[in-house]
Structure formats: structure tokens, C-alpha cells
Amino acid sequence: MNGHNRRTWRRWGAAALMGIATLTNLAPANAAVWGFNRFEFANPVFLNVWSASDQPVMNGTVKRSYTWGPNPWFDYKEYYQQSPNGLRTVQYFDKARMELNNPGNATPSGVTNGLLTVELVSGRVKLGDGTGDDQNIQRQPANVPVAGNPAVANPNAPTYASFRGVATVDNGYRDPDRTGQRVGAVLDKFGNLSNNAGLANDPLTQIVSYNTVTGHNIPRVFRDFIQNGPVDGLFAFGLPISDPYWVRARVGDAEKDILVQLYERRVVTYTPSNPAEFRVEMGNVGQHYFQWRYPHLGQAWSRGLNNPPETQIAYASKIATPDHWEVFLRDPNGFATTQVTSGSQETVPYSWRRSFVDGEQPRLITDSRRDGGLRQVFSINGSNPGDVRQHTVGSDVNSNAFNAAVSPDGTQIALIHQPGNLSSIAIIPFTNTQVVPNAALPYRDNCVYQSPSWLADGSGLVFASNCDGKFAIYRADIQYTYTPSEQYIPASLVNIRPIVKSATADNYFPRVSPDGTRVLFSSNRNGQGDVYMINLDGTGEQRLTTGNADDGAASWSTNGFEIVFDSNRDGDYEIYRLSLYAPENVTQLTFNQVDDRWPLWAQ
């Protein structure tokens, strides 16, 4: 099926609303990137590891700095070739990242916390155990301050990139043994070294051991902190990859002298001016690494509990151009409406690339025919509609790309690729600007694919497919086969199983909830379109709209407690809002004499 008439085969009924099912068990149970519950632990073993060291700090029974942080704030499935399907569960904390490479060993011994500092200094993101190009991605070293405030409020502080010339990151660098000396060496932002004899007066900076493996000196203050800490030193820190250096950094409103040493997994700091219990602290490596790996996402830890970033409601309308669709934005709590696109060819919204960056509107991912009439993928800055990027290019007049769903971490796009009469699901990097390869995820003869929606942890997709005459809703895991390229991510769908399937009715347009536990979908099983909700495992199906109207294309709110959908219950298609906790509260959002379709809120 082509174009945005993908529901024209459904019967349009008279406008009526007979009643809506009462909903229960709406509270999500798992952590998720965008769910209001993202501060929960992604796996019970992560909670066990955290509790052993940081629960006493949280309770106030121990006064010292956190080992991990007061709580997690982002979890996901990141690439790791030696893990099932090439993905491992990770969860970020202020001070580090927990990893579970093998879900079969969900015990504290199976939890690692990554060589984040090595990656930040070298610029090399590890995608597996190996050292080859297929298991690493080379980036620039991180220009993120190693201590103190973020860069915007700490512009002159040394960064991880500043340590590139004095750190051991597969480069053979070693420092001479300086046992017995005190540390007066100062490192600046540009990697230059100098000496401050006054700073060397502190007896706690005396070098008391030398690591012969990496070739670095350890001062008394850091040796004692690691040896007397609540966790095994090798597990938490790894080996030192630099000598200790004094840096000048802004902390709050004050410039301070801070002694810093980089270890494989952590950064440890000594600030003599701090209260005694907090003079030695773990650096915020988890925050620093997240900023470097996901610069488009912003500071996820800075958003308050139960406060995910809001998005406006996007939808397609013919109010400005009666012969084709254009994109509009609407404030969900008001009446302000903004026209986003204006052209001679249709554009409709499909997904948001969301962000934790305060004050920055995320990018709207759209289907558009502005490229010579082909359906292709474009993204638009919601607050600056002139900022438009094209993400796919048709190879010929018969090649279309549409229904583009951006992954929760904002790095990938799952879309429908349709060369000729065949269609399949392809996954491309968000940065792609090329022709989508024909070698997308495997094709099946006589099948039509539509509407991919990502699982909350990025491990798979929910989508609609018609292989035998009726559309059904399926769930599948994604198996990554090797390192993604700049244009194409080699992957396949595995463990495909139906969530909703009927021999007599079409079920289509699925949307996974922000917390990842439920799926909205539309169905014509009652002779007209209605909106349904079902658990991700295929249980607990509930009908949300009833009557003779054509209701469909539902989309979740940012907190997962409300939905928007389109309906022709007033004679033409308008956008409506429904509360899942009070389903009788249906609010009409648009009022005009033309069609408004395919609303998009949070996905």
C-alpha cells in the first residue's frame, strides 16, 4: 500500500461514541529511556550491586562520596558483539555505567562497569571484545571536562582529550617511577605540563606505589581511598592510565585546584578545600561518557523524577493546502497551532527524535514526497522549521522509504523500504543521507510491511505486516551481525511472533508505550476503526474507543497516561485526546472542515 491512504480500505462509519472500556494496571514495571520510571533499575542485579556500596550513602548512615550515584537515569541495549543478538543491557549512573554482557549470568559477578575512561581519552568506542575495526568505532577524544562543572560553565578546565598525550590507551605510553615524590605537576586544557611547588607541599600527594603494568604512579590519597573503599578496586577502577595531575576547574561558582588521576573505568579526584569526608570523590564519568556518546540527548540526569521532556502534538492537515498534507504542531495543553511545513508535495509526521536538552525542541521525523514525488525520510527541527535534513534518497522512481521510526537513543531509524512492489524493514543510522540499500532486513514474497515502532530498550521492533490477506501486529528482536556503517546497519529480525492476529480483521498502526510495556494499535474487527491497547506479551487486550466512527492512528503521551488519535466522528477527521485513567474524558483538539490525521505525541 502506497501513500498515506493506508486506511482507505476501511469502512467509514457515522460519528458516535458509545463507551470506552475502564482501564486498569497502567503502572509500568520496568525502567525505560523515556518512561517516567527511567530512574528505576533495568535489572535486579544492578540494584544489588548498587545497594552494596551506595545504599548506606543514600540512607545517610555513611558519609562519603557515591561509588555509582544516587540513582540510575538511563538504560538501553547497546552494541556488543559477544552478547546475544549483538546487544547488551547497560545502565548509566553519575559515576559509571553498569553492563550485563551475558543475561544468563545475572549475578553480581556478571556485572561489569566498562572502560569508559579509556574510551573518552582515546575516542574509541568499544563494540566488542576485539581490537579490530569491526568491534570499535573511532571518534574524536572527548572535549568534556574531567572535573568540575560542565563545559559551558567550565570552559578552561582540562578535558579527557587534554590527557591524550599523557595517558596509556594502547599507545605504549609510560611514566617513570616517582615513588617518594610529591605531586606538583599541573596539566592545562591544551595538554601542557607545568609544576607548582606549592601544591606539592601536601603530604597526601606523596607517591606510594608504582603500577608496573601501565607504568603510572599512585599517590597516598588515592591508594588509601581505593583500598578502603566499599568495592573491589580492580572491579571499580581498573588500572591507572595516567599519573596524578593538578588541574584548575570551576566547581559551582569557584575555581579550585583539584588533583585528578585517570583509571581505566573511573576518574578519582582530591579537592583539599572540600569537607573531609568528600575530599576524595569519584568523578562523574558516567555523565561525561553519556555526553560524549549521545551529545544529542543532553543531560538525562538533570531532568527531575517523573519529568520526561515534553513534546508537542504533531499531525497532518489539509487546512492550508487542500490538495495535499502538511505538518502542524499543537500544544497539548493549549490551542496554539503552528504550521511546520509548506510546499507543493505532501509531508506527514511519523516519529520524534527526543532530547533531554532543556529549551531545545526535538527533531520531527517525517514522510515527504518533496524529493521528486517519492516518499522519503526527512527530519525537521520543531522550533526552527527551516532546519530540514534528508535521510534517504530514492534510487529510482519506484523506490520509496517511509514510516521512519527513530530509535529511543536517537542513533538509528527503522523504516519501510519499498523498491517496486516489495516492502521490508530497513535500519539505517540517523546520520544517513544515502540511498537505502536493497539488502534491507529480509524480504518475504507477497508481504506488505508498515508502521515499525521501537521497543523501549532498543532491542527490537513492533510492526504491522500483511502476508496472507490481513494485517497483523508482530514483535521481533533485532540481531546485529557486525559493526554498522555510515549508511546501513546490517541486522535481521529474529524471534518474530504475533501479538495480535486475526483471519477476518486487519490490525495495524502499532505504537509501543514510552515505558515499553504496552502497545496501541488500530483494528477494523467491528466494522469500523477502533483503538485498542494490549500488553507487549499479547495479553490484556482492551478496546479504547467504540461506536460507528473511524478511530485510529493512536499515539502515546510522554508519560504514557494519555493518548491522541484521529477520528471522523464529527463528519471529517479531527484529532482527539483520551485519558487512560479517565477514559470517559475525550477531548477534541482540532476543529475545522478539513481532515486532520495521524497525530504524533511522544514516540
Describe the structure in brief.
The protein folds into 2 domains: 44-302, no CATH class; 313-600, Neuraminidase, CATH 2.120.10.30. The protein has 5 helices and 37 strands. It has a 4-stranded antiparallel sheet with strand order 1-2-3-4.
Question: Would you write up a description of this structure?
Answer:
It is a single chain. With 603 residues, the protein is mainly beta. The protein folds into two domains: 44-302, no CATH class; 313-600, 6 Propeller (Neuraminidase). It contains five helices and 37 strands. The strands form eleven sheets. It has a four-stranded antiparallel beta sheet with strand order 1-2-3-4. Strand 29 and strand 30 (518-523) form a beta hairpin. The longest helix has 16 residues, at 44-59. The two termini are 23 Å apart.
How many structurally independent domains?
2
Radius of gyration: 27 Å
Q: How far apart, in Å, are the first and last alpha carbons? A: 23 Å
CATH class of the largest domain: Mainly Beta
Portion of residues within helices: under 10%
Report the uncertain regions.
1-29
Compute the number of helices: 5
CATH superfamily descriptor of the largest domain: TolB, C-terminal domain
Number of strands: 37
What structural category characterises the helix and strand content?
mainly beta
The biggest sheet, with number of strands, parallel, antiparallel or mixed sense and barrel status, is:
4 strands, antiparallel
